[in-house]
Amino acid sequence: MLRSLGVLITVLFACAAAIVTWPQFFRLEKTLPFAHVAALRGSVVAVFAVLAVVFLLFAASRRLRGFALSMAIVSVLAAICGGVLLGLRGYGAASLPDKEETSVRVMTWNTAGNATGAETIAQTAVAMEADIVALPETAEGVGEEVAVLMRELGHPMWVHTEAYNEEVEYGPQAWQTTLLISPHLGDYAVIEASSDGTTMLPSAVAMPVDGSGPIVVAAHAVAPQPQYMDAWRSDLRWLADQCVEGDVIMLGDFNATIDNMAALGENDNDMGWCRDAATQTGNGAAGTWPTFLPTILGSPIDHVLTSASWEATGSVVLTNVDDAGSDHRPLVVQLEPAS
Q1: Rounded-to-integer distance, Cα 331 and Cα 88, Å
Q2: DSSP assignment letter at 290
Q3: How confident is the model at residue 2 (pLDDT cuts 50, 70, 90)?
């Protein structure tokens, strides 16, 4: 009886491990609780590794040896599979290639309102030579202050903002998304369709005024909290629809990992017709949130995605501003026009 119970528990544990390791195979990557588990794949691998050690310790008991060893084997396999997948996506590249004349540097940083301060944002963007900066949860006034500071540092930027609930005088900065674009990329304007985009937090779609240049989308999807799951799924679908076959650069806080986006790609792309730049350049597994966890255990929910018009040549997740005030890390990507 006890042996049969042990076999049943092991089988159930193996099924649970398979779902947690690869939820998209079971089409559960956007379903509670698997959406959250998939987003913390590094932590899940660590948990399976700890469980393997615990079960191996239990195996020292003769009465529990068969059950404990089988559970340990399942835990080891789950940890290896998850770890290999993270390794393929990249645990973290430390630097960017030299910036060429044709290069475009882009940076996304959810600044948690003005928690980081405009000076820190400006200094980071200038140090990284960013041509496009997406700042979810950053008010227009803060964005303008950042642009002034960047101009004083010899790096001028145009400021664009999309805001929701503007009738609320002192609403949270999460209701605004600010986008900075370098003048050398041309004149841009945020289109009216942005106001009909993501459901609760704004995303800004900026188009080149003369029609020459990439469409730039500063994205902010709502977090997948239990009461907002439908809105979160709707946001991800809308963002995927913005990644068309043309010339697109999309960056921001997606509140989703590549696993969560598994069903949203077209023609083997990651989201719509775009590919994730961090995954292409060795940073796909480096967590950008939360800052209190090391990157290997965190969740890569901030992304830069590009259409086939661009080739990502490098990326870096910045950890030197973990104490700046935001719970997100900046992600910086270098892009080159595709051959």
Answers
A1: 19
A2: -
A3: low
CATH architecture assignment, domain 104-337: 4-Layer Sandwich (3.60)
Tokens found for residue 231: 């809105």
User: What CA–CA distances, in Å, run from 233 to 98, 152, 255?
Assistant: 38, 41, 11
Neighbours of 218 (CB within 10 A): 31
pLDDT in tens, 199-225: 999 999 999 998 888 999 999 999 999
Q: What is the pLDDT of residues 120-132, one digit of tens each?
A: 999 999 999 999 9
Distance of CA 33 to the CA centre of its chain: 18
The CB-based long-range contact list for 64-68 (8 Å cut-off, 24+ gap) reads 66/3, 66/6, 67/6, 67/9, 67/10
Residue 75, SS3? helix
**Distance between CA atoms of 285 and 298, rounded to whole angstroms?**
8
211: left (phi over 0), alpha (psi -120 to 50) or beta: left
- Of the candidates 166, 126, 168, 170, the one whose C-alpha atom is nearest the C-alpha of residue 146 is 126
The alpha carbons of the chain give a radius of gyration, in whole angstroms, of: 22
Give the tokens for residue 89: 């996506």
C-alpha span between 99 and 17 (Å, rounded)? 43
Cα 259 to Cα 193, 194, 229: the distances in Å are 28, 26, 16
- What's the maximum distance between 2 C-alpha atoms anywhere in the chain? 76
Closest CA relative to residue 277, chosen from 298, 296, 254: 254
Cβ-based neighbours of 170, under 8 Å, separated by 6 or more = none
Rounded to whole angstroms, the Cα distance separating 316 from 158 reads: 24
